[in-house]
Amino acid sequence: MANSEDALKVPGHNNATYGPVPKAEQLFEIELLEIAPSTIPVGQIFFQLLRGEIPSSKRKDLAQLNKLLTTATITITGSAILPDGKHEDAKSYTVPLRTTAFADAAHLSIRDATGAYVDYLSSSGRNDILTDSVIPGMFLRTGTWTFEVVAKLDDGTCLFAISLTQYLEGRLKEQE
């Protein structure tokens, strides 16, 4: 029998867990999350692959679901506990969950079950969400950082929600 800690762990090579939305309330069933390199380096490119699908048992009105997938968003919230015990205020960023280039700093790509690159998640079959990004050290304080990634449909339905905690060394100093 698996312990409760294993039940919360997102499958794959990562240290992510399900949350802040409970796994049972998530529409997208995660097959794996790969993060490379792991641990995530500051100031260098790192990559993520999130693979999964929306199970047929969770698909109600297919036409409506397909419409909602075209306007889905992903919110990334980062917060930290600094070495002196102080808390860095949480900052959130919300972007469309679609194939997008964010200048040279980051890219988000979606592939369907055939491996073809598409604009949005598909309501049927496997989906891959691939990202590459950099966490710039000059804007980061050293500390234990928690990142929560929540993807939602416009009707409030949670597609997926994961949380990852890692110690990161930044170059931003506290103002005195």
Strand content: 35-45%
Class from helix and strand fractions: mainly beta
What is the C-alpha radius of gyration, as a whole number of Å? 17 Å
Spans of 5+ residues with little confidence (pLDDT < 50)?
none
CA(first)-CA(last) distance: 52 Å
Distinct helical segment count: 2
Oligomer: single chain
How many β-strands, per DSSP? 11
Kindly state the mean pLDDT as a whole number?
A: 92
Let me know the largest β-sheet: 6 strands, antiparallel
| Helix percentage range | under 10%
How would you describe the shape?
A: globular
Order of helices and strands: HEEEHEEEEEEEE
Describe the secondary structure blueprint for this structure:
Blueprint: H1 4-8, E1 17-18, E2 29-36, E3 45-53, H2 62-69, E4 73-81, E5 87-96, E6 100-102, E7 106-111, E8 117-118, E9 126-134, E10 143-152, E11 158-168
Antiparallel strand pairs: 1-11, 2-3, 3-9, 4-5, 4-10, 6-7, 7-8, 7-9, 10-11
Question: How would you sum up this structure, described in words?
Answer:
The strands form 2 sheets. Strands 2, 3, 6, 7, 8 and 9 form a 6-stranded antiparallel β-sheet that branches. Strands 1-11-10-4-5 form a 5-stranded antiparallel β-sheet, with no helix packed on it. The model has no long low-confidence stretch (mean pLDDT 92). With 176 residues, the chain is mostly beta strands. It has helices spanning 4-8, 62-69; strands at 17-18, 29-36, 45-53, 73-81, 87-96, 100-102, 106-111, 117-118, 126-134, 143-152, 158-168. The protein starts with a helix and ends in an 8-residue tail after the last strand.
Index terms:
176 residues, mainly beta, six-stranded antiparallel sheet, five-stranded antiparallel sheet, 11 strands, 7% helix, globular
